[in-house]
Amino acid sequence: MKANRNSERGMEFLEICFDTFCEYGLENTSMQKLSEACGVTNAALVYYFGTKDDIVIEATAHCMAKVEDDFMAKAPTSFMDIERFLREMPYLTAKLHGAKYRFMYQVYASPKYREEGKVFFNGVNIRYHRYAQMLSEKLGLPADFIQGMTYVFVRACVHYALFEDEEYLQLQLNAIRTSLKAVASMSGMQF
Q1: Does residue 1 form part of some domain?
Q2: Which residues of the chain have pLDDT under 70?
Q3: Structural domain contains residue 54
Q4: Are the C-beta atoms of residues 47 and 156 closer than 8 Å to each other?
């Protein structure tokens, strides 16, 4: 029987393990390295999570959902605040979360974890829908439009965090701005 994975201690272990994976990569991170980082024995991590694969899956899902929460905590608070969000977030998220995105893609792009990736990204769809509904009233925009733009924006931010590709980022941001101007003009708003 495994320990309560959702305990405060279990969550702490997931976050430490995820940071360790981000620092050393999937292949270069052993159970020994994980247990040393957590300050426990291998047996303790096995007790909490089972195998290294279980840790990879749970740590990635848990920590990337936290990244989404951090992202949404900085979401625009009004239609006029969108431009601030577009200007600041790509650079902030690259600085704070670039290594996390690199590891997440290493995991979910692997054939070994592809099914877990599908489950995770299905959860992303659900969370983005919920975020869009919450933002719809604040921004005065339809939820489905916000959800679609969120995918474009997050993809642009992640790509920038991975590759520091300024041209790609600016082209995506300009596409978002053009879409926002079109929607604003149809609604009689100014962007």
Answers
A1: no
A2: 1-4
A3: yes
A4: no
Provide the domain count of the chain. 1
Radius of gyration in angstroms for the set of CA atoms belonging to the chain, rounded to a whole number? 19
pTM of the prediction? 0.91
- Token pair listed for 58: 């749970």
